[in-house]
Amino acid sequence: MTWYFWSQGITAHFSQEHDYRLDSLELDGPELAASGQPLIGVPEAQLLQALSGPQWGKVVVRDEIGRWLDVDDWGLMIWIDEGEVESVTISPLTDDNGDYIWPDLEGAKS
Predict the structure, then answer these.
(1) How confident is the model at residue 86, as a pLDDT?
(2) Is 104 within the bounds of a domain?
């Protein structure tokens, strides 16, 4: 099941496989910001530089059904279109019991 909040640039996905718990948020609104700076439209090279700190873990560039950056340690998929950030998908991590742990992105500040 998916809920769309078009005017806010938010799409919420609820998975049947996970008892309809919220299992990802896709954000593409122009007001999406990181550390007070707009994120949508940021050049990929600039984003890769920002994600180079050790707190982010491994960042993998994927180019399969589109281009995106996988930041697995934080549950992030950052979608790139024409060399710029188009949207960000946030998904929870899971603990050993399968319980969701949503990333604390505030804790990722350098």
Answers:
(1) 96
(2) no
